[in-house]
Design goal:
Distance between the termini: 41 Å
Shape: globular
Number of helices: 9
Number of strands: 21
Oligomer: single chain
Strand content: 25-35%
């Protein structure tokens, strides 16, 4: 499978605390080199965002950029990744990267991570902090983006997805999801659905979970610290009322799905995607999840009992809960899909068709092009006494390349970067 087409240029800013220096610059896409000694490679120390932009009147319009930048900085604070550039500076670096990409729609991946460091888990005081952003094309993420589609299949994962920072987009938090991803594909599902330690539904690998009953949307609560407060999730909470729907945060147990009218997931990449089937793995005739057989509030034994009544419990494999594609509990002569209505409204908003939601869109040409990265970012440094250097096209990428290993395991880096001590 070919990789998606990426933009023409990328941007990076590298903070060198011991040198009191920030190096910034735009460069041709693909030239950035990250040293194998980067702290983020060993320990997953980084945070990122996923942002989408859509074509509106022939121009790129970035959806809820301000909220994404706010969350990026909040996550960086959680990880203690200090980047002395203001939110406005990062915001406009993202806009400029989109402008230089030549794309009018696509996906933006900004990230903050720890660069070259020692082998200790605790970052060395000299550790570089790197900000990087690029753009790429993104089509139908789950291939369920069309109105009236049948929806995708998800599998309840065999293990919980645990993270100490569930309300932040920390890079390391996605390792468990990546490791368990083959479970879904083995059973013919698109994605994994995770339970918490009580056997209650939390979220998917990279999407928030929703269930509709009647005219009420239910979703697991953020307040319990087990669910990422998704920006698309927040968008749905705001537009639900306009469709006459209630939005309720409450505990959802797997057996609640037996009476669901509709199920869907949301995310920046996923947008609003319908779920048509939820699979539960079976091993030796029993539910093969970590919570199986435990008498907990979220126990899914009720589903197993229902399946046994129907005589559909295999010794090995899965049992499935089929989710209706239309809401049949609504007092209407013709059942409708509220997921379709939510998706239609969401698409209208991101494509600039709703005047009152224009504030959620950032049109790229609203900001003057950045011709000198040094001159621009010198105005957005938040720490006194720092110097800002602009690197030419290759310069900023050479900055990150490991040059040589010195004696006694001490690392020497090029371009005036000081020695690293273990």
């Amino acid at each position: 499978m070919a990789f998606p087409t990426r933009g023409k240029e990328e941007f990076a800013a590298v903070y060198m605390p011991m040198q009191k220096l920030v190096k910034v610059g735009f460069g041709k896409m693909g030239r950035m080199k990250v040293p194998i000694t980067s702290h983020a490679i060993d320990y997953g120390t980084g945070t990122f965002e996923g942002i989408r932009f859509y074509e509106v009147n022939g121009k790129a319009a970035i959806f809820r950029l301000n909220e994404h930048v706010e969350r990026l900085f909040a996550s960086a604070k959680t990880g203690n990744y200090k980047l002395p550039i203001s939110k406005e500076g990062i915001r406009n670096a993202i806009i400029e990267t989109v402008r230089r990409s030549g794309m009018t729609s696509g996906y933006i991946r900004p990230k903050i991570f720890l660069g070259e460091s020692s082998i200790r888990v605790s970052p060395h005081p000299e550790t570089h902090v790197v900000f990087h952003v690029y753009t790429q094309e993104l089509l139908d993420y789950y291939k369920t983006g069309q109105r009236g589609d049948k929806g995708m299949s998800v599998l309840i994962a065999s293990k919980p997805r645990r993270t100490p920072f569930p309300n932040s987009k920390m890079s390391g938090a996605y390792q468990a999801g990546a490791a368990l991803a083959p479970e879904a594909s083995v059973h013919g599902a698109t994605e994994n659905l995770y339970l918490n330690s009580k056997g209650e539904i939390s979220e998917l690998t990279g999407s928030n979970f929703f269930m509709i009953k009647g005219k009420t949307i239910f979703t697991p609560p953020v307040i319990r610290g087990e669910v990422l407060p998704g920006i698309t999730r927040d968008t749905i909470s705001k537009i639900a009322k306009e469709l006459g729907l209630k939005f309720v945060q409450k505990t959802i147990r797997p057996n609640d799905l037996l009476s669901a009218d509709e199920v869907f997931v949301t995310g920046t990449a996923a947008e609003v995607s319908k779920v048509s089937e939820i699979k539960i793995p079976i091993k030796n005739g029993k539910i093969a999840t970590y919570a199986a057989g435990r008498k907990l509030p979220g126990n899914i034994d009720a589903i197993l009992k229902e399946a046994r009544k129907k005589g559909i419990v295999p010794k090995e494999g899965v049992i499935s809960i089929n989710i209706p594609s239309k809401n049949r509990s609504v007092e209407d002569p013709k059942p409708i899909s509220y997921v379709d209505l939510l998706r239609d409204k969401y698409k209208d908003i991101v494509h600039g068709k709703e005047a009152k939601r224009q504030k959620w869109l950032t049109i790229v040409d609203r900001v003057a092009p950045i011709t000198s990265a040094k001159e621009y970012f010198s105005k957005h440094i938040t720490e006194s006494g720092l110097n800002v250097h602009e690197m030419p096209d290759r310069g900023i990428w050479e900055l990150l390349k490991l040059r040589k290993m010195g004696p006694s395991g001490r690392i020497s880096a090029g371009l005036g970067v000081g020695k690293r001590s273990e």
